[in-house]
Amino acid sequence: MDSRTAFRLTNNDSNYFFGFHDLVAWNNAGDKLAALKVDDIYSPPYPSQPCDVGFVKDTVFTKLGTTIAYNYPQGARQQWIGKTNLLIVNDQVGDKWGSKIYDTDQLIQTATLNFPTHVITDDGWAFGIDYARLHRVGGYGYTGLKDKSSKNNAPADNGIFKHNVYTKENTLLVSIETVANFQANVNAGKHHYITHLLLNPAQNRVAFLHRCKLSDGGETTRLMTIGIEGNDLRVLASGFLSHFDWKDDTHLVIWGRTGTGIEALRNSLLFRMMPTGVMSLAKKVVKSLLNKNRGAGQAGPKDPSFNWLIFSDEDKPHQSFLAKEVITEDGHPMFCPTNRDWMICDTYPNENDLRTLFLFQYSKQKRIDLGTYKMIKDKPDIKEVGHTLEDVDNTVLKSFSVENMAFFRSGLHCDLHPRWNRDGTLVGFDSIHEGIRQIYAFDVKQYIK
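Request: output the structure for the sequence above.
Response:
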């Protein structure tokens, strides 16, 4: 095996994927890779199209069950519980989204839980969010269940749910209402939601994104954290914010832009009080500013106001830069679990439709490109899209074409989403460059000392 090239971990008999860049895909022993398997990737997920849940060992996929609680960017949030060989996976439970636990040694399901899981501590405390609401507002939700809190812009009984997978103890850690009203600006917007939960390495704090729709037709994001006991809620940043990871227990790294004239305009009392006609013109101005130098829906390298930013997790956070003028575009970062000086990341497709996988060393400000992987030109099945968008809010549907919605929600849209193994020697990623969706790995031992 050539350590300078990626190798496939799955068989090309079907489509396989893991999902996001924020979870370790391998079990503690490193011999089982959590994975999902699906035949058709040409349309967005729908309840009549479940995917198989299982694990890969020596390129062989072992099926444990099925789930309809999945999307292509983040999978079914399948993840290992601590050092065990128990795999927890989201699925529909009754009339809501919940989760199930599988024993990958006995090949049996061992538990059904009434709450979904986005992240979980080693000792079994899981944190979940409302995927029906996420689906309605255009986030990474699941198709098939209606948002029961759709008429409430900031519900008090919805938010981050905390539950113990062994004792079944559960509580609402923090509500959307509490988050939306915490240090909120005067132009708070509508359709508040919480997304992208992520535990710090010590597993005592959860970072998340608070988002809401604004009156100018855009969306704003706040990077926030909270203790796992519901203590010390904090706002670290606000603006146009994207993908992030914990650099260590007290610092977060995120791509975005804060504190510009656009954010100041949106947050101003004058902007909110403008007459309808003037507001309409102002919306167009803001949108043109937001879209300037932004390619494929992402802020590109030509926009110097965007950077990889570091924020300290404090009541009065300090901001610094991760890789100024070294990494100049958005991607999907994950820091090495054994040496957090190193980060794995990717890029969006360039003008040649190539995504780049690369390492970054913070102490030396050094980027190492590992490989490039080409997206395919296939188009999604438009005929199958309509029913998958039934519960998406009209304000979202008006912002995107059916073609774009179909592509970005289908399995044809395949970001690399790189993620580490537990000992920091191997990086896994999803890719479609061979014409079929597969999971690959790259041996990085020669770089990580």
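The radius of gyration is 21 Å.
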